[in-house]
Amino acid sequence: MFKRGIGDTTDIVEKEMFVFDDKGGEKLALRPEGTASIVRAYIENKLYSSSNLSKYYYYGPMFRRERPQKGRFRQFTQVGVEVFGSNAPAVDAEVMKTMSEIFDKSGISNLVKLNINSLGCPDCRPDYRKKLISFLNSKRKNLCEDCKNRLEKNPLRVLDCKLESCKAEVVDAPLMIDNLCPTCFEHFEDVKGFLNHFGVNYEINPFMVRGLDYYVRTAFEFTTDFLGASNAVGGGGRYDGLIKTLGGPDIPGIGYAIGVDRLVALMMEKKVEIGKRLKVFIIFFKDTMEDGFYLIDKLRSENITTIFDYEIGSLKSQFKKADKSGADIAIIVGSDEKERGIYTIKNMRNGTQKEIKKELIINEIKNITSIGGI
Ligand code: HAM
Predict the structure, then answer these.
(1) Residues 129-161 pLDDT 10s
(2) Pocket test residue of 1, 12, 262 for ligand 1, highest count of atoms within 8 A of CB
(3) What ranges in 119-230 are assigned the alpha helix state H?
(4) Residue 214, number of CB atoms within 10 A of its CB
(5) DSSP letters spanning 226-271
(6) How confident is the prediction for the chain on average, in pLDDT?
(7) Above 50 in pLDDT, residue 371?
(8) pLDDT classification of 372: cutoffs 50, 70, 90
(9) Could you say which DSSP state residue 199 is in?
(10) For the whole model, what pTM was predicted?
(11) Which atom of ligand 1 sits closest to the CA of residue 68?
């Protein structure tokens, strides 16, 4: 499945896949990526029969036998999305928009850059491929050994060789984006237009080819300058023929995967605080126990971190415990509050206090959470 899906002349399949025979003599591979597997599940379960457009996401470990270095591991984690059923350019743009939102929300958007390219289709790529091979043959003697091998088998890959010496040789190479057929040209124009509508910044990088052979038309990659040679934080593209190649109907698809290890490394680089949640301490007494537990339950059911004093001590000792626990807010449920149908909220950071009507408490706490704490 991976050989057919990703392509047998790709580095992933040729050099990096962990393949072995199990005790029953069956050939197994540790999955190097998720797309081919999702496509197989889609075909096997005939998921196309229930909906014209299907959107999936996945998260999990992947395995590639690469040389380990900063940001490059033999086991790493990807989170990915795949959309099946539409070849409309707006889908390409929306998919990239979701990816850029993930980087935004992770607080690293200024450390990454979106590169886009069009890789053409089975109509226009073969002619371009010939042009490229003849250009590369004229540069052959100056290319690295890997590129000499790629030249006939997978010439497009020569364009994104990381070696400076090869980069210098291909600066004048013919480019796919200058050789697109009218349909691919229009598709690429529309994708760029929709990206502008979505407010997503991008750069056209005609040398970006991606390491998997299933792509047609749109290919994209978010890169960074902060992770040494492992500069791709996530990438993807359109793969309209893949479902058919793997034995399913002719349904188009597009998707991407983000390298979670690299994303986290960037967040650490920028010291982005993750998982910081508001902590609420409920102060109540023996005579207001019912109200206290009711409120604890209500806040917890809203997924708000809520704690209280198991000893149900005096007001003073409960405040001390609230302080020690690192709570951001204390809510006092005393007999006076109970009688008046209110709660007293104390901001534990600056000591200010206010009263709030009982029925408004959840909203109040949610507002505080949504603006990122107090
Ligand atoms: P990929 O570019 O091979 O695409 O991998 C996606 C991301 O996984 C990379 O940008 C990188 O962040 C991360 N990654 C890859 N290899 C390693 C490694 N050895 N160590 C750490 N992180 C790594 C795919 O896998 C396609 N399946 C994406 C896709 C989905 N295209 C369409 N749908």
Answers:
(1) 999 999 999 999 999 999 999 898 899 999 989
(2) 262
(3) 125-139, 145-153, 164-170, 182-198
(4) 23
(5) SSTT--EEEEEEE-TTHHHHTTS-S--EEEEEEEHHHHHHHHHHTT
(6) 93
(7) no
(8) very low
(9) T
(10) 0.79
(11) 19
- 234 Cα: distance to centroid of ligand 1 (angstroms): 6
CA 66 to ligand 1: nearest atom:
19
How high is the pLDDT of residue 263?
A: 96
User: What's the 37 CA to ligand 1 centre distance in angstroms?
Assistant: 14
Cβ contacts of 254 within 8 Å, gap of 6 or more: 82, 83, 91, 92, 95, 218, 236, 237, 238, 239
From 11, 76, 227, 239, mutation site for ligand 1 pocket: most ligand atoms within 8 A of C-beta: 76
pLDDT digits (tens, 9 = 90+) for 301-327: 998 999 999 999 999 999 999 999 999
Q: Catalogue the E-assigned strands of the chain.
A: 19-21, 27-29, 54-63, 75-84, 112-118, 203-204, 218-224, 232-238, 253-259, 279-284, 305-308, 329-333, 342-347, 353-357
Note whether 34 and 212 are within 8 A (CB). Answer: no
* The pLDDT of residue 216 is above 70: yes
- Domains, the chain, with CATH or none: 2-124+180-269 (3.30.930.10), 279-373 (3.40.50.800)
pLDDT at 275: 62
- Compute the distance from residue 214 Cα to the ligand 1 centre, in Å: 14
Which pLDDT band holds residue 9 (cuts at 50, 70, 90)? confident
The average pLDDT across 204-216 equals 93
Q: What percent of the chain has pLDDT over 90?
A: 82
Q: How far is the CA of 246 from the centre of ligand 1 (A)?
A: 20
Which residue's CA is minimally distant from atom 16 of ligand 1? 72
Q: Which residues pair with 130 in a beta bridge?
A: none
pLDDT at 362 over 70: yes
Q: Which atom of ligand 1 sits closest to the CA of residue 35?
A: 27
- Which residues are near ligand 1 (CB < 6 Å)? 33-35, 64, 66, 71-73, 76, 78, 80, 82, 211-212, 232-237, 255-257, 259, 261-262
